Amino acid sequence: MQVEHHPLAAEFPEHKDAIHHLKMNNAHFAKLFGEYDDTDKAIVRAETGVDHLGDADLENLKKVRISLKDQLFHILQTAGNA
């Protein structure tokens, strides 16, 4: 099974510059970005067998990642319209 990382810049390549700018200048975005990155890494570790999680725990992590991605995307859209 191929396990993929989901870095935010790969998820939204058209917003790569904005992601970098917001990480440096927006504390809330930077905090959410860190949580997203940590969650993504935890999912990859679980899927590759490095860490052992039950199916329900893995699914919960994936839901957290989706929620964080939605929040980050909303900030990116708002920043793009400012």
UniProtKB/TrEMBL annotation:
<dbReference type="InterPro" id="IPR038444">
    <property type="entry name" value="DUF465_sf"/>
</dbReference>
<protein>
    <submittedName>
        <fullName>YdcH family protein</fullName>
    </submittedName>
</protein>
<dbReference type="Pfam" id="PF04325">
    <property type="entry name" value="DUF465"/>
</dbReference>
<dbReference type="InterPro" id="IPR007420">
    <property type="entry name" value="DUF465"/>
</dbReference>
